[in-house]
Amino acid sequence: MAEKKENIIWTIRMAAPADGSARPQPARPAWSGYRERPGPPPPPASDVVTQLSITGVSLVCNPGAFWLRRAAWFLVIAGLLVWLCFQLKECITRVQAGGTTRQWSRQMLDNIPVPAITVCHGNVFKKNRVLRYTNEGVTWTEFRHRSFAALNWSSFDDIGEFYSDAVYNWSDMMFWCEVQGRLCSEVGSLTPVATLANGMCTTFKTNATVKKRSSTGQVILAFNETQQLDSYEHSGWWIHIHSHQIPFDEISIFTGLTMWLRVAVNKWYNIRLTHIRKSLLQSTGQCNAAEQAELRYNECIGFCLMTRLNMTVSCRVPWFENHAYPPEVPPCRSLAELARNSPAHHHLDEDSFLQMSSGCECVQPCASERYEVQQQTVWQLEDTVVYQDYPSMIGKNASRVDLSLPPLVQVINEREAYSFQTFISEVGGSLGLMLGGSLLTLVEIIDCVVTACCARRAKRW
After folding, report:
1. What's phi and psi for 236, nearest 5 deg?
2. Which of 4, 131, 134, 430 has the fewest CB atoms nearer than 10 Å to its CB?
3. What percent of the chain has pLDDT over 90?
4. pLDDT 10s digits, 84-95
């Protein structure tokens, strides 16, 4: 140990000068400016490609491998790349094509909402009232064909007087109405609605909900005719079912926002409904997502039709809303005035409505509700027990309707036909199937291409 320590001291003494001064350092060359220290040379492009995680690429780029094996892997990879390009082209084409699709689903409800129900009389006007205002010798059948042209306009002051006296009210049509054992008048409201083609209708609305029933309907409507009519003179009744947001009128029937049912005389109907909720895609900009969009759409169509008919507002008719007229507009007092202020004399039927409304720039609501008939069963009234329950209906023109509201709601949601998420999924699936990679493989390929280009450029310099 002492010998090892003496050797270390001797080595230190030999490295230092004898006079104790510092050992002279070698002279440094004079500074002549900054010169960058050369870095390591860039890797060859073949080495960069071999770093890809794609199976077989390292073998193809390995010059030491057997040439036949390298050629086979090259053909396989090239073929898969060509097929991948076709797949990517198809995905891009579908993205550019756009479009939408619909998705159906079902929703179970514990508390089933009751839709708005509007009841109208098929005859529009009462026979005994109409014959008081017609010209001499005009029969009921003739009035049904000629309508207002068969009236004696001097027998009343204006069309409103005749209309209010001759139309059917709720009590003139309904003998009984109940919602799961409770009277309609107790659980909801009854609102009269004046219309042209259907006369004075009444809309029933309630916020009450009902439970599921399997054998009988939750809503029961019993119709009873108060006029003395023969069976061939009776046109039955009309039931219009719609959402609470839609006020009933002729426009709502044409736009499809209201479903209608015709009830014949002396029949018992058992009708099962289907509740459908429809939701359009808001991102397309082709629908209105604001509140009361259904009401706005209905009003827009009505205003557009009135404009296209070039109707002049010179007198008031009872089947138009009062707020549509200025306060000073008088009621119509002649057939000529009525013809100028009512679409009845412009032959506005369903075909003409579709033709005229096609040019209306009205935006459909994004969210809407409607009802359809799922199942309908009809019996003759005398073959049932209705007369036992309601003996006063014997010998009269009467009918009964049982409405069954299902707890299942069909939900229709509009979606993009080929969304961006679907595009990413299919591109990633094609990469994984063809090359065993992912979207990160695309990034890796781009990185290798850029690195190889840089290495080639640095080699030139």
Report:
1. 75, -155
2. 4
3. 25
4. 888 888 888 888
Of residues 191 and 293, the one with the higher pLDDT is: 191
Per DSSP, the residues of 316-362 read: B-TTS-GGGS-TTPPBP-SHHHHHHH-GGGGT--HHHHHHHHTT---
- Mean pLDDT lowest among 61-65, 180-184, 287-291: 61-65
Pick from 176-185, 249-258, 363-372: least confident = 249-258
Radius of gyration for the alpha carbons in the chain, expressed in angstroms and rounded: 43
Measuring CA to CA, which residue among 142, 134, 114 is closest to residue 244?
114
Q: Are 374 and 284 in contact (CB under 8 A)?
A: no
Give the whole-angstrom CA distance, residue 59 versus residue 51. 11
What sign does the dihedral 170-174-179-181 (CA atoms) show? Answer: positive
Q: Are 268 and 399 in contact (CB under 8 A)?
A: yes
Q: Is the pLDDT of residue 412 over 70?
A: yes
The H-assigned helical ranges of 167-249 are 170-173, 184-187
Contacts of 287 (CB under 8 A, 6+ apart): 280, 281, 293, 363, 364, 365, 366
Torsion angles phi and psi, residue 405, rounded to 5? -100, 115
Give the end-to-end CA distance of the chain in Å, rounded to a whole number: 59
* 9 secondary structure, DSSP code: H
Angle, helix 350-357 to helix 293-308, in steps of 10 degrees: 100
Sorted by sequence, the CB contacts under 8 Å of residue 322 that are 6+ apart come out as 316
Are 160 and 85 a contacting pair, CB within 8 Å? no
